Structures are given as structure tokens and as C-alpha cells.
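stage 2 :: seqdesign
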């Protein structure tokens, strides 16, 4: 009897491995399905990345990642509960389970990766910290800021980089530390400080959308840090971590393969590219491997477009923010955006 049981177990193991590893739903995915909603932590209000209009409709690069995740998991990009979080609130909200994923211009660092019980799903936007000053000051370089007062948010890599930069260059500064994004911006435009510092994309967004006269403010040429921004999930739920990564990668891969929101259905039916076929669920079991179905990537792409479409819609050259792709271009076009092989 014992021998028969062992033989049956061995057969079962061979059968499972013969089919290939199949992902099991993790606790986070189970909860999302039970709630029929993805809870996504976003910025309290940063144009181009995560901001709500007067009707409470959220838009932005980071918001589209939330929509893509909801479309992939729940089949509906609108099944997202947006939870606006300040820089100081964001990690606690994710750790405590208040949100399922944090998609809020958050920099991937060693300390955050290793000691907060969190895991970064990838890089969604490559950024760097810069400085904005009133044009009337006549400043043209960050090296001219000795003695300046600087508005900055606490609990950010921005605050730490600021101190490093001035210390490394033997310069002094007066920090004006304010928690709320809206209040730190208001402090700068009201003249409470000489300089506003944050990620360069945030400076461009703030100047375009909140400056009384954008032409009165200059973004200095220096970037003083690397700021790889990306979505974050709780550590310990490997199944949901895989979903968070592969939704991001699918949106990047879609751009490389020319799959768009408009043509994804046609590409699934007619493309002969093996990668496109696997990504869109025409062949293979990519969806099953991450605990979803075959069309998870196709739904995400149809909901928000590929990475290039998302970038252009929210922060690209034809938007008020007007950012060039730069290092956020695909690796095939000289940038850093790169998805691992989907096979």
C-alpha cells in the first residue's frame, strides 16, 4: 500500500512537472478577485503621473499602470480604487494592506528594496533629481545655489540627495521642508524658498500646470541623482509580484512589437510573430504561468495602450509637460526600456 501511494505521488509529480509549472493564486490576487477591485496607491496630485480632475477621474502615467493591472486581473480597467498617498504615507499603506500595489513615482533604492518588506516590480520611468528657480534670480547652474533656501518634501530620496549634493560641493543651503506636495509647490511659487527640487519630470509637470507664468521659471541643467521609478508590491506574495512585473513588461514589449490599443485584437488573430502570439494569448500558456488567463496582456494593452502610447499621452512632447523619451525610449532606440523575453 505504501509503495503504491509513493508510486502514485511520483506519477502525480511527473504529470505536474510534465505540464510545466502552473502558478497558484496568491493572497493578494485572491483578495483583489474577492473585492472585484484593485486598490492602487497613487500620488496626491502630480500632473502627468497621477492626478484627479474635478469629477474625480484619475489620469497619468502611474494611473495607467493601475488600469492595466485591473484590466489584466479583473477584465476591466475601471475596477480600480485610487488611494492618494503622500510620500510619508505610501510605504505604510502598502505594508499594512491598505493598498494592493503602489504606483506613485517611487524611486527604487537598496534600502527600500532590502528593509521595508517591499519589492519593486520594475522601472516604469527613468528620472533624475533637478532644480527649478525663478528666472529673475539669474541662476544658470546648480553650482550657483550656495546659500539658497530649498523647498523639498520629507521622507523622499529627494531630501537625501539634496543634502548629499550640497555637502559634496561644499555649499550651504536652508531646507524648507513641507510634507504635502501641493503645499511645497505653493511655498515655492509664493517665494518662501529660492529653489524647488524634485524629480526633473515633476519639475516640468509643476512648471507647466501650476506656475502662474511658466516662462518665469527655469529648470537648471544638472541632474544630481538617478531616480528609477516603478510600481511596488508587498514582499512575500511571489504570485502577485509576478503579475505586477509581467503586466509592466507586456506593455513595454507591446511597444517594441508594434502592438497598440487599436490593433491588439487584429495582431492576436493575424500576427505570425511568435512573441506577439504568446503575449496576446494566441499560443502558449503565458497567462496561466502567472495565475491569470491567456489574454491578460492583451486586455492591458487594449485598455491603456503600449508603453509608448502611455508616455506620449501623459508626459510626451505633445503634452504641456513636453518630455522627450530620452532614456525612457526602448533599448532598440537607444533608451533603457527593456522587457525580458516573454517565453
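stage 2 :: out
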Amino acid at each position: 500500500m505504501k509503495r503504491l501511494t509513493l508510486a502514485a505521488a511520483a506519477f502525480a509529480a511527473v504529470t505536474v512537472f510534465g505540464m510545466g509549472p502552473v502558478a497558484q493564486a496568491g493572497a493578494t490576487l485572491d483578495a483583489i478577485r474577492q473585492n472585484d477591485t484593485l486598490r492602487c496607491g497613487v500620488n496626491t496630485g502630480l500632473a502627468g503621473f497621477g492626478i484627479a480632475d474635478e469629477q474625480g477621474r484619475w489620469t497619468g502615467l502611474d494611473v495607467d499602470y493601475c488600469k492595466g493591472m485591473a484590466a489584466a486581473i479583473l477584465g476591466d480597467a475601471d475596477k480600480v480604487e485610487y488611494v492618494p498617498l503622500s510620500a510619508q504615507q505610501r510605504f505604510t499603506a502598502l505594508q499594512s494592506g491598505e493598498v494592493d500595489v503602489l504606483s506613485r513615482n517611487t524611486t527604487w533604492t537598496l534600502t527600500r528594496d532590502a528593509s521595508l518588506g517591499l519589492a519593486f516590480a520594475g522601472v516604469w520611468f527613468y528620472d533624475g533629481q533637478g532644480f527649478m528657480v525663478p528666472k529673475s534670480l539669474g541662476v544658470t547652474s546648480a553650482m550657483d545655489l550656495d546659500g539658497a533656501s530649498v523647498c523639498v518634501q520629507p521622507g523622499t530620496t529627494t531630501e537625501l540627495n539634496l543634502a548629499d549634493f550640497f555637502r559634496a560641493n561644499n555649499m550651504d543651503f536652508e531646507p524648507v521642508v513641507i510634507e504635502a506636495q501641493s503645499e511645497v509647490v505653493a511655498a515655492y511659487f509664493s517665494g518662501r524658498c529660492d529653489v524647488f527640487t524634485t524629480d526633473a519630470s515633476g519639475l516640468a509637470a509643476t512648471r507647466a500646470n501650476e506656475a502662474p507664468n511658466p516662462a518665469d521659471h527655469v529648470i537648471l541643467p544638472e541632474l544630481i541623482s538617478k531616480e528609477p521609478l516603478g510600481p511596488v508590491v508587498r514582499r512575500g506574495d511571489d504570485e502577485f509580484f509576478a503579475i505586477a512585473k509581467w503586466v509592466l513588461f507586456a506593455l513595454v514589449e507591446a511597444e517594441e512589437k508594434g502592438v497598440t490599443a487599436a490593433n491588439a485584437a487584429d495582431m492576436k488573430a493575424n500576427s505570425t510573430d511568435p512573441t506577439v502570439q504568446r503575449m496576446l494569448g494566441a499560443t502558449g500558456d503565458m497567462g496561466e504561468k502567472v495565475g491569470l488567463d491567456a489574454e491578460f496582456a492583451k486586455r492591458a494593452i487594449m485598455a491603456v495602450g503600449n508603453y509608448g502610447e502611455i508616455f506620449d499621452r501623459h508626459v510626451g512632447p505633445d503634452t504641456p509637460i513636453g518630455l522627450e523619451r530620452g532614456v525612457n525610449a526602448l533599448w532598440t532606440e537607444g533608451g533603457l526600456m527593456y522587457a525580458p523575453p516573454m517565453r
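stage 3 :: structure notes
- Confidence is low (pLDDT under 50) at residues 1-22.
- The longest strand covers residues 38-43.
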